[in-house]
Design goal:
Blueprint lengths: L2 H7 L2 E10 L2 E8 L3 E9 H6 L9 E3 L5 E7 L2 E2 L13 H20 L2 E2 L8 E4 L8 E4 L6 E2 L29 H17 L9 H9 L13 H10 L10 H5 L2 H4 L1 H6 L2 H18 L1
Antiparallel strand pairs: 1-2, 2-3, 3-5, 4-5, 6-8, 7-10, 8-9
Helix pairs in contact: 3-4, 3-10
Length: 282
């Protein structure tokens, strides 16, 4: 199916594809009225399967088409930059970004949900026109489910480099703590532009994970407090792994140095993002 032509017929100008998955494709598009928009197109039957969390989606169904177009305004995606790019975020930007994402994850988990595919390309940066502000938004809930509902699958879900160690033992037993590990890997990648492990396939990744007890600290992460937070998120034992709520109480966000690094405006944005997530869930 020619998704780009469908978008043009709906008056969206496709700019580039942001990602493809089993549930659909996401395009960066330009709309004459709304400006830059991320449009996700999925087949109707896939939408029904992935719609156990309908309050998280803004969508339109187009009559006569066996698909849905789910729209999200976005400025950018946290791209999976190659290691050689070596573009580092300023500490205050990194800290504010991590705080916003963790606030969203905390709200998501407090609703009893699991995302199951946290990665760089599923974090959108949303800038409402005229505000000059940027909000981090967790996207792509196609694999999300209630924590206490069985998946009924025997195959793995998620993105291999971001999969928690316990998922290589019981692939269909994903819990909220697996989201925290995946988010830790996402932050790790955002800082270092590489993965601690990225084998060529699931079997090789599983074999490599079996030889390790923890993730080694990379030389790119100089901040001891930041690494302490990441190491707690990347703890191999899910029972010992930190939660999103606990992560937000870590000194990386609560110390005097953190408050000096994160401006009042950025702190307000994080609180607004949390309230927006809670409003959607309620």
């Amino acid at each position: 199916m020619d998704y780009e032509n469908i978008l043009r017929n709906l008056l969206f100008v496709p700019i580039t594809i942001l990602g493809r998955g089993s549930f659909g494709s996401v395009y960066l598009t330009n709309d004459l009225l709304e400006g830059i928009i991320a449009a996700k197109i999925i087949l109707r039957d896939k939408f029904k399967k992935g719609c156990s969390c309908p309050f998280l989606l803004e969508y339109n169904s187009y009559i006569g088409l066996d698909l849905f177009v789910i729209l999200r305004m976005t400025l950018n995606v946290i791209a999976e930059q190659p290691e050689e790019s070596q573009i580092s975020l300023p500490s205050y930007t990194l800290r504010a970004l991590m705080k916003q994402i963790l606030e969203g994850m905390r709200a998501f988990h407090e609703a009893g949900l699991i995302h199951r595919d946290i990665k760089c390309s599923n974090i959108l940066l949303h800038s409402p026109p005229g505000t000059g502000r940027v909000y981090a938004k967790i996207s792509d809930f196609g694999l999300a489910k209630q924590e206490d509902s069985p998946s009924g699958k025997t195959s793995y879900v998620g993105t291999i480099p971001n999969m928690a160690p316990e998922l290589f033992i019981k692939t269909n037993d994903s819990k909220q703590k697996a989201d925290i590990y995946a988010l830790g890997i996402t932050f790790y990648h955002l800082i270092t532009h590489k993965y601690p492990m990225n084998e060529k396939n699931y079997k090789c990744q599983k074999k490599m994970m079996a030889t390790l007890k923890s993730i080694e600290r990379p030389e790119e992460i100089k901040d001891d407090i930041l690494w302490d937070l990441l190491s707690k998120m990347l703890e191999f034992d899910p029972d010992k792994r930190i939660t999103a709520a606990e992560a937000l109480q870590h000194p990386y966000f609560t110390s005097p140095e953190a408050f000096a690094d994160i401006s009042k405006v950025q702190q307000d944005l994080a609180q607004q993002a949390t309230q927006a997530e809670l409003n959607e869930i309620s």
